[in-house]
Request: fold
Amino acid sequence: MSISFNKLKTSVQISQGSNIIEDSLKELYYKLDLNYPKFFKMDNLCKLGVLGAELLVKENQEILKGKVDIGIILQNKSSSLDSDIKHQAKIDEDTVSPAVFVYTLPNIVIGEISIKHKWNSEGVFFVDKEIDYELLSQYSNILLKEARTKLNLIGWVDVFKNQLSLQFCFVESEITTDKLESLLG
Amino acid sequence: MFIGAENIISPLGNSAEEMFEKLKNGESSIKNNKGVLASYFFPFQNLLLPLMMDSIKKSIELVDKDILIQKRTLLIVSTTKGEINQLSNNIRDAHLSYLPNNILKELSWINKGIVVSTACVSGLQSLIIANDMLNNDYYDNVIICGGDLASNFVLEGFQSFHALSKSSCRPFDENRNGLTLGEAVSTIIMSNNKGLYSQVPLKFLGGCSINDAHHISAPHRESNGLILSINNTLDICNIESTDIDFINAHGTATAYNDSMEAKAFGKLELADIPINSLKGFIGHTLGTAGVIETAICMQSMRNNLLLKCYGFSSQNFDVKLNLITENKNLDTNTILKTSSGFGGFNASAILQKI
Reply:
């Protein structure tokens, strides 16, 4: 697994090839000293999203201070297909579990991040073949311009089988598509 | 922004008017099919895309198509599970982007297609996003299509949660004991141009979707997320709560959801306003719910006729809600629509007559 920040550490990228995804996520959890037992109940998409948010939060305590109006605008390619396959396998084996089924929605990752940080604000999850910088920047600009949020967590969080990728950033003011691309890319 | 050209394709019919006529006559589409209680299409529909395509085309027939083609038009697909029945045999089609990509192959004049997938609030949130996009001049028209099937995948999941009702669901009733699934597709077209529509449109004033940061599958006990959402929406729309004539709630008929909503409406002093849930008629249609229920509300506004809360007979909430028990003629100028869902999402929006 590789993790990289931009210069100001307001954006983070995580990617990995063929390692066992559970091991990589667990390793990062311990490295971040998270002490959040709920983490182990989550599916891999939520684990990745929560870790990505944690990396950014740790680096940006100052700008987050006193803010709860933090919007979350995320996107991915695989929706919750990684958990969908697991739920389908449970159906086929006649061992269906609510603990698996509840993760068969992509927006649950926004719920998990909101719960972890007690962010009581706007959130939306988009799905597309690839990251849509234009859409993400447009919606972020709308929320900030209309003062519906004070800060937005924007990005991409995708998990399918052993492939994962994450690009997250914090944005405090209106941003162009190109600027967002350079921040996340 | 303007909102109109609503279409519904459901087990009760292929247009919003046809649907409304049946609901007016107290018809529910929830039936027992081989031991499973749900609102199913008959004949059985395995694929979502053809239904969505059909619904979108029927909505487009209700507008000046040249304006859609010449101006900047966005498509928003609202779905939770898309072509979930393809999961095991063709996973490529089970990707949610499969839907807008294929719709745009046929309707190539649409500038862009996106997917919003936020559980049961997907539909209402798609309308809110459409309004936001128009208000901020990123697009001139937005076609919003909600679609989901009552798949075995979802049925099995809700069953494991013990969330399915043994009899047809009873929103807000004291004896409610769970939800009933439904399937349908519904399309609405929003625009900055009143002249787009062949029938007088309504106005969508605005809305928002707020996370309650409490639990991924249980609603907040004090209804904080929904209260914040409705308060923000009133603020965004510059509307006083006393201006609201009617509320169409989420009302899934699970014990926790309906209590959470009742508590929110009580705390917001909205309890005296006539209120219903439509899920007793059509079941919980997941990603379609916010679109189809708004489309039915638009029919209510056009006809000045509020539908009864089908399945409801008596309540035992701390604050008594003004649930509609018989269809009611009322000049309905301003309405509040709410949706809540897994992930802690609470959406609300306000529509008004021109």
